[in-house]
Amino acid sequence: MFARASRRSPIQLFIAIAILLATATVAAQVYKWVDKDGQVQYTDAPPQGASKAEAKKVETSAPVASTTSTPTKTLQDRAKDYDKRRTDVADSAKKAEATQKNDEIAEENCKSARAGLRDLERTTDSTYQRKGRDKRHVR
Fold it and tell me: What's the helix, strand, coil split of the chain in %, to 5?
């Protein structure tokens, strides 16, 4: 029984370490402070030159977004992206319609060719039979 418990202990130790590491990354520190212009700022590091009374440490339970995020797109950039998506959708619809039309034309051409072949086979068989020149076996 003691040997069985010793086999579990490395797995239990690994799980305990994994849980501790996961909670350490989630519990981030956020500092709330007021700049010289009176604006409230939130950062993941205390401001330089600030005394402990100026910086307020706020505990969070969710990960904090990076302060070096990409800037948001301007209204003109978003409008251009929207126009591009709209024209791409319209072009795709036109291409799909043209493909469907070509498929329908090909289907009609195939039906017509098959009907013409059937007519040709019937005409050829009856012509040979009437003139008595049919050397093939009649169906």
Answer: 60, 10, 30
